[in-house]
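Review session, final week

We close the course with one last complete record, chosen because it touches almost every idea we covered. It is Protein kinase cAMP-dependent type II regulatory subunit beta, a protein from Anolis carolinensis with 256 residues. Go through it on your own first, then we will talk.
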Amino acid sequence: MSQVLDAMFEKSVEGGEHVIDQGDDGDNFYVIDWGTYDIYVKCEGVGRCVGTYDNRGSFGELALMYNTPRAATIIATSPGAVWGLDRVTFRRIIVKNNAKKRRMYESFIESLPFLKSLELSERLKVVDVIGTKIYKDGEQIIAQGDMADCFFIIESGEVKITMKRKGKQDVDENEAVEITRYTRGQYFGELALVTNKPRAASAFALGTVKCLVMDVQAFERLLGPCMEIMKRNIANYEEQLVALFGTNMDIADPSA
């Protein structure tokens, strides 16, 4: 870590400044110190904002890892500052560490059915950007009503999904009902990212749970080809909610 910190340099940015541009060669990896930034991806000549950074986050790593052009444009929407790491140092330190992580998680990621629609190179990119987090028995992983900032894949353990009752007058609205349980290889937390709504349910660890975690920016950049599968799963969630509560609680309607 000290090698990385010693090699980084500070760069000030102004509102409206392009920090990186889609299609350019990658020269640096950036970590946000402060400021807000929009992520634009151009498809068929049309640019679309696919996400934002708000005073935290990092970007620019994919072009350096794979020697490919920049996959997105990052535009500062306020004054700010970022810390940069040049290509040579990045590849010497970061890519070496990522090679170890690839060996650990490559076969696991390739075994996940919902990622089958991704090309091999795209699955490897997923391995490179995921983090890991361990939760203790009973620990809350996500909370119903919170804004979503990441997506989870269970590497080991079991997770209980609960939802507070609504729509029935004869029960306490604060009473949480268990919806389902997930185990190794299954995922959760995607619903709020797909629908752009707050978390529709809570998740709790049953025993010790280890999850692979992907932040919302990486989710939007890398899992686009999987989005249709995730949207189809909304129908399954709605069926479960109708059976339990008599309503789907409008989980698929972003304007609700």
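Two points worth writing down before the exam:
The CA atoms of residues 65 and 209 lie 30 Å apart.
The first helix runs from residue 2 to 7.
Good luck, everyone.
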